[in-house]
Design goal:
Blueprint (H helix, E strand, L loop, with lengths): L1 H4 L3 E2 L15 H9 L6 E4 L2 E2 L5 H15 L5 E4 L2 E3 L20 E5 L7 H12 L4 E4 L13 H7 L3 E5 H6 L1 H9 L5 E3 L12 H12 L5 H13 L4
Parallel strand pairs: 1-2, 2-4, 3-5, 5-6, 6-7, 7-8, 8-9
The chain binds fe (ii) ion.
């Protein structure tokens, strides 16, 4: 599989059963992981909206994973944490980092961000010494001023795009990738239908159209994750 050969990690997924709007059952979770386009290394990132305690979330995440049983995929845990105003000073974010690293996946509001919202995101880097990763960048760009994503990237925010972006709008997605803005890719897979695993499909498409060297930055970042994380 090309994504495995390039050492890529799917850092955004909702395959854990019955935790959020992702997989609806253990069977669906297994199907997602067994799908030919599912990456070999997958970070489980259920949504965290702050409606349960951090402890309960972590316990449920572990139980959901255990319920799937054996898989040949390498899995580690993270979360897709929805924006909250105090997040730049919130030690709790450390509990959501990907596989014990300093990377934490953040989902921002789907509207034009205020300066305060962007400052909160940047503060995760500046105050907490973590690396905020902006989830599915392409879903916010229509609302933002030109240069917003570049500004965040210059201030310590890492950028993740969904693999679907490459399948649906290759030109725009490649423009962002080739500019060096994208640090990570994620399938954001939710089910086996409308938001099915497509990680390897997208990586194959990129390699076919532009050559795999354009994934050098993503590959470098992912190889670091692969060697630094304790995988399940
Ligand atoms: Fe997501």
């Amino acid at each position: 599989m090309i994504s495995t050969d390039l050492g890529l990690v799917d850092i955004h997924s909702h395959f854990l059963p019955c935790m959020d709007d992702g997989s609806k059952s253990v069977e669906m979770s297994r199907e997602m992981l067994d799908h030919p386009s599912c990456a070999s290394y997958v970070v489980a990132t259920p949504h965290f909206y702050g409606d349960v305690s951090v402890e309960a979330f972590i316990r449920e995440r572990r139980e959901a994973f255990n319920s799937i049983g054996k898989t040949d995929k390498k899995i580690t845990f993270g979360a897709e944490v929805y924006y909250y105003p105090s997040m730049g000073h919130s030690e709790a974010l450390k509990d959501f980092c990907i596989g014990g690293t300093t990377l934490v996946l953040i989902e921002m509001p789907f509207e034009r961000w205020t300066t305060a919202e962007m400052d909160a995101l940047i503060s995760i880097h500046d105050n907490l010494s973590l690396s905020p990763v902006l989830a599915h960048v392409e879903r916010y760009t229509p609302y933002q001023k030109k240069g917003t994503i570049e500004y965040l990237a210059e201030n310590g925010v890492r950028i993740q795009s969904n693999t679907e972006f490459f399948i649906e709008d290759f030109k725009e997605a490649y423009k962002m990738l080739s500019s060096g803005l994208i640090s990570f890719l994620g399938s954001d897979m939710h089910n086996t239908g409308s938001r099915k695993p497509n990680f390897d499909e997208a990586v194959s498409l990129i390699a076919e159209k532009k050559g795999s060297s354009c994934l050098e930055i993503v590959s470098f970042n992912c190889r670091q994750l692969i060697s630094n994380i304790k995988w399940e």
